[in-house]
Design goal:
Distance between the termini: 30 Å
Strand order of the largest sheet: 1-2-3
Strand content: 15-25%
Protein name: Amidohydrolase-related domain-containing protein
Oligomer: single chain
Organism: Paracoccus cavernae
Order of helices and strands: EEEHH
Number of strands: 3
Structural class: alpha+beta
Largest sheet: 3 strands, antiparallel
Shape: globular
Mean pLDDT: 76
Helix content: 25-40%
Radius of gyration: 13 Å
Length: about 60
């Protein structure tokens, strides 16, 4: 599509992501503009566990 700010995860790049469960092939999370927009399934459980034990910094570090 010729969009120069897409295609890699790096500083100054757009980082809209979709997290897909490999077993079910369902989208379990979406991150848009650096914020969680959708969270369900196993992704929800992992984010919830990280949040409860370490706070937001643990989630951002993974």
């Amino acid at each position: 599509m010729g969009l120069a700010d897409r295609g890699t995860l790096d500083y100054g790049r757009r980082a809209d992501l979709a997290v897909v469960n490999a077993a079910t092939r369902r989208v379990e999370a979406t991150i848009c503009a650096g914020r969680l927009a959708h969270l369900t399934g196993l992704a929800r459980e992992r984010f919830k566990a990280a949040w409860n034990t370490e706070g937001f910094n643990a989630i951002a570090a993974e």
